[in-house]
Every structure is written in structure tokens, then in C-alpha cells.
Amino acid sequence: MSNDQTPAADGPFRPDLGTRDEAPQFVLPLVARIERAAPPARTDALETAARAVLVMLTDERSVGDGEWARAIRDWQDARIRKVVRRARGAEWRRAEALPGITVTGKSAEVRVFPPVPLDGWPKDLARLQVSGTDLDDPDPVSPADPAVPVLWLNPDLDMSAGKAMAQAGHGAQLAWWELPDEARTAWQTAGFPLAVRTAGPSHWPGLVKSGLPTVRDAGFTEIAPGSCTVVADHPALR
């Protein structure tokens, strides 16, 4: 069951039709820097994308009377779509020149932009490719620190890195919505530490039944509608 703080039949990531589908549709663009000679590690890219979503949600320009606040509200009133595209070289430099925020990880750089209409992408972002975001982890990924929020990926789904980055962002956003104010402040002050890991096959069923925030994908790309993609395990929500 999804804990997305909206009615079950009209959640932001669920396939069911509802009032969110009647609202004007927006998308949160994320651009990952993927240079041919030095692509980022997959897990680091997923974690950096998730943090980028949180940074965008909490930026002073996104709240209150900030210059991005109206776009954020309009986006959250409809389906909460995120699309990850890739850029390198001059493409990345053009993306950096547009209003947004660049978040860096150990090897990854992800730039997040304020939401745009579904069919109204800036041309320097619209020309970027969605495909080609397949990434690998060259080194073994260490176990997640139990004190850090973990975004658990469904082990039964085969998602491209770009798709998984968007899903991790969804999970981080649901966790943020669920947290009490004190826990939100602590997480933000710490710089949004988090981990993204693929759950073990025996661990996953318990996570889905745990009552933690759960993303059920709307099925626009790659996977079937209603697929459970991420469970957001924040210590404050256990």
C-alpha cells in the first residue's frame, strides 16, 4: 500500500486516473553529466539524483513566494513526473547556464531544474537524450549505514540508470513529505545523507508490507503500471 499522503486512487505516482490527471501536467527535469571518458558510478548517480530532488524542494526559490514556488506547486498538483536526461561536454555547459541547481556526489553531477510543462521543455534540455544512461558500479557497493535513510529498489525490476534515478527521486520526495518537521530540519541540516540500494529478494516483501513510503510507478516508461519500485526507509519513519 502506498503512503503517499494522497487518496489511494489518485496518488502522485499511481496509474489510476483521477484529479491529478485533469490538472495541467508538469515534469521535473534532471540532467546527469555522463562524459564518455569518465561516467559516474551507477549507485552514486542514483543517490545524487535523489538528493537533487530534495535540494530543489527545499531551496528558498521553491517555497513561499520564491521564483520557482508556483512551478513547484503546479507540478505537485498533477502527476509528479521526473525525467532524467544525459549531457556531456558542450551540452552540459549549456544545461549549466539555465536556471537550476547542480548537486555533486563522489563521481556524479546532476543538475535539477524547476518544473516545466510536459510539452514545454527549454530547447537546450529538450534536445538531450533520455537513452544512454546505462551505468555500472565499477567497485562493490558497501552495505547501507542503518543510521542513514535508504531508498530500497525492487530487486525484480530491470530499470535503466535514468529510470532508477527518477524512481529514487520519487522515494526521497515521499519520505520528505512523511517526515515530521523536526526530522525534516535535521535531514536538511545534515545535507540530505541517503543511500540507494537494491533490496535482497527475501528482504523486499517485508519492506513492501512495512508501511514505509512506497512508490508505485504510473507506467509511463519501461515498467508496467502499478509496479512497486522503491520503498523509502528513513529512520524517523520506522
UniProtKB/TrEMBL annotation:
InterPro entries: Pep_tRNA_hydro_II_dom_sf. The keyword Hydrolase applies. One of its GO terms (molecular function) is hydrolase activity. Residues 1-21 are annotated as: Disordered. Gene3D superfamilies: Bit1. This is Peptidyl-tRNA hydrolase. It comes from Streptomyces griseoloalbus. Keywords: Hydrolase. It comes from the Bacteria.
